[in-house]
């Protein structure tokens, strides 16, 4: 049973990091530029651990920011209620992810190469089939099926936490026009996605603004940057302190990489 839990947590953590760093910060908000090597690793991990079509995820998320907590927001607990979003938020995401108008308007500047068209988006369910084979191969039929079933619950649970509790419970560092909240220590599990901080500085590659908030995704970005594999494009002013006037997000140096998914 310990092996089941370790695999679920490990694959779940990889899923969260890949979505947060690649789909969220690099693609949806263009906050960080990734070298093609880690970009392709993240693309494969999203395919393997979630079966998510990246362009659809980016489009739904951008629409969320465009209509945050008002009519048109695909998954706001303010609009739809906390219980439906927390317990069935993935259904709201899936419904919007198949909306062609949303994909056309908000799904631009995403990878459109052969791999994306023919595998990652064209046959996205093959990733989960491969993940099921890994579970069955490592754990055997019964524990493997149990582990895979638990794994399938991971992303809907995280979606409920981020989109539900992230706009309903927790604390606020910043006054924003929405109901966004930071939920700690759950942010540690969901790759440092401090929601209120992010809605105040949506183009910042760094989601933590207080010294005791730990952004796992930012740590991964800095580690990649130290290896020459990432470059932050935008980051909130680190000199800001709570209570001081809010600064604008500053642009960093020009990125050496053309696109996150190239």
Automatic annotation (TrEMBL):
Q: Which GO terms describe its cellular component?
A: membrane
Its GO biological process annotations read: fatty acid metabolic process
Q: State the compartments where it is located.
A: Membrane
Keywords for this protein? Fatty acid metabolism, Iron, Lipid metabolism, Membrane, Oxidoreductase, Transmembrane, Transmembrane helix
- What Enzyme Commission number(s) does the record list for this chain? 1.14.19.-
Origin superkingdom: Bacteria
Query: Per UniProt, what is the membrane topology?
Result: Multi-pass membrane protein
What family is this? Belongs to the fatty acid desaturase type 2 family.
Query: What's the protein here called?
Result: Fatty acid desaturase
């Amino acid at each position: 049973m310990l092996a089941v839990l370790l695999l679920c947590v490990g694959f779940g953590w990889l899923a969260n990091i890949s979505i947060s760093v690649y789909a969220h910060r690099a693609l949806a908000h263009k906050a960080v530029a990734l070298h093609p090597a880690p970009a392709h690793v993240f693309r494969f991990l999203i395919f393997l651990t979630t079966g998510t079509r990246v362009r659809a995820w980016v489009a739904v998320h951008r629409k969320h920011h465009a209509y945050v907590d008002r009519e048109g927001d695909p998954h706001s607990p303010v609009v739809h209620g906390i219980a439906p979003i927390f317990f069935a938020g993935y259904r709201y995401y899936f419904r919007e992810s198949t909306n062609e108008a949303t994909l056309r308007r908000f799904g631009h500047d995403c990878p459109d190469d052969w791999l994306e068209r023919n595998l990652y988006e064209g046959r996205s369910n093959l990733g989960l089939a491969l993940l099921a084979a890994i579970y069955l191969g490592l754990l055997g039929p019964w524990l493997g099926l149990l582990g895979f079933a638990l794994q399938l619950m991971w992303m809907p649970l995280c979606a409920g936490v981020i989109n539900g509790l992230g706009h309903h419970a927790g604390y606020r560092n910043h006054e924003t026009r929405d109901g966004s909240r930071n939920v700690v220590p759950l942010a540690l599990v969901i790759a440092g996605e401090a929601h209120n901080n992010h809605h105040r500085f949506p183009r910042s590659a760094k989601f933590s603004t207080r010294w005791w908030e730990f952004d796992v995704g930012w740590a991964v970005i800095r580690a990649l940057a130290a290896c020459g594999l990432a470059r932050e494009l935008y980051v909130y002013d680190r000199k800001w302190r709570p209570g001081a006037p809010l600064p604008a997000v500053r642009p960093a140096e020009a990125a050496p990489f053309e696109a996150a998914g190239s």
